[in-house]
Amino acid sequence: MGRALISVPLGVYGGICAEEEASENALREAAEEMAAREGVDYLELRNRNGNRYAGYHPNALYATFSGPLPASADLVSKSLPKDTRYMIRKGQKNALELRRGMEQLGTFYRLFAQNMKRHGTPVFPRASC
Questions:
Q1: Can you give the residue ranges of every domain in the chain?
Q2: Neighbours of 74 (CB within 10 A)
Q3: How far apart are CA 28 and CA 41, in angstroms?
Q4: Which residues pair with 9 in a beta bridge?
């Protein structure tokens, strides 16, 4: 593979995040300058929206599939595989709950790092996040 500069290593998506075209172009140009300065073999911007910049090549390693969302939670449940419904019921039975907010970052990172380690994938230190 050689040396690469990737917008979000170990992630499928994470290209340039900008509200207007001028900002997007400025960020892309800065990434290109950094890639040239660092002497990498290639620069990879993983844009979720599929935009491809002139001179960039597509990467067919990743694919996204989507479909319409059913009208009710019951229809969503029925559309899921049997083993997935089982895991959802198991979570409900064990009082699984959703928590949001930056105060959850430590717990999230710990679980993320454990999972990545099980898969043999290196994890960036939390300080670099």
A1: 4-44, 73-121
A2: 9
A3: 16
A4: none
Q: Return the structure tokens found at 110.
A: 């710990």
* Residue 5 to residue 43: CA distance in whole angstroms: 5
Rg (the chain; Cα; Å): 20
Confidence (pLDDT) at 125: 84
pLDDT digits (tens, 9 = 90+) for 57-105: 777 777 777 888 999 999 999 999 999 999 999 999 999 999 999 999 9
**Type of residue at 11:** G
CB-based contacts of 52, cutoff 8 Å, min separation 6: 58
- Residue 44's CB is within 10 A of a number of other CB atoms, namely 18
Both structure tokens of 13: 């998506």
